[in-house]
């Protein structure tokens, strides 16, 4: 977790420095961030579950794809709702055979997600982002890896909570007709509801670090 946080902070710092350099030379985005625009979104994220009751989950890669709508509110703010398909989850290690062997289980939760983002514009190309999200669970799958085998399959959809919601924060960098966005999202809802999922994922909640590229249309 500390390594991930260090990498994220380093990337933020590098892009912020570059953004400041562009601003010092009078750089401004070719397109206006103060006119309504629709765009397509794609990106990847590292997600896992946060809660001590499930042990120390490992981050697993995922992705998201969808659409975005940029709605200016003033010279300093714009509202940006999005509609995404997002694959989240986490990797947990379990011991079996009297703790002599271990298996890694990747839980994959497939959501339709709606982030509601408030962009706070600066005088340069940098935006600060705050907001929230709501999502609906479409499917739950898994893969399992042991020292001797690999397998995958469907989880019992009814064992999982269907709705998730939480807060979002981050930064974005505006470029001609596009934006590069870095976000952290923290879920408030438990992912498991009952039966086997609840036994293994009791009180577990989603969180993720994401990188998104948005291409706006004129």
UniProtKB/TrEMBL annotation:
InterPro entries: Beta-barrel_OMP_2. Keywords: Signal. Residues 1-19 form the signal peptide. Residues 37-191 form the Outer membrane protein beta-barrel domain. It holds the Pfam family OMP_b-brl_2. It comes from the Bacteria. This is Outer membrane beta-barrel protein.
């Amino acid at each position: 977790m500390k390594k991930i946080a260090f990498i994220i902070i380093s990337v933020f710092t590098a892009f912020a420095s570059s953004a400041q350099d562009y601003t010092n030379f009078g750089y401004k985005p070719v397109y206006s961030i103060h006119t309504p625009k629709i765009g397509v979104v794609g990106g990847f994220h590292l997600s896992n579950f946060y809660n001590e009751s499930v042990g120390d989950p490992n981050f697993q890669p995922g992705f998201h794809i969808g659409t975005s709508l940029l709605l200016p509110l003033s010279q300093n703010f714009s509202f940006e709702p999005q509609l995404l398909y997002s694959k989240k989850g986490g990797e947990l290690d379990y011991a079996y055979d009297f703790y002599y062997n271990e298996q890694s289980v990747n839980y994959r939760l497939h959501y339709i997600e709606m982030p509601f983002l408030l962009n706070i514009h600066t005088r340069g190309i940098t935006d600060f982002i705050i907001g929230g999200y709501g999502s609906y669970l479409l499917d739950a799958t898994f893969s399992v890896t042991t020292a001797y085998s690999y397998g995958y399959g469907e989880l019992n959809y009814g064992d999982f909570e269907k709705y998730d919601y939480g807060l979002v924060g981050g930064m974005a960098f505006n470029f001609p007709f596009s934006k590069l966005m870095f976000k952290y999202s923290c879920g408030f809802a438990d992912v498991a509801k009952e039966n086997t999922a609840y036994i293994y994922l009791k009180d577990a909640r989603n969180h993720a670090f994401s990188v998104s590229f948005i291409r706006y249309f004129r």
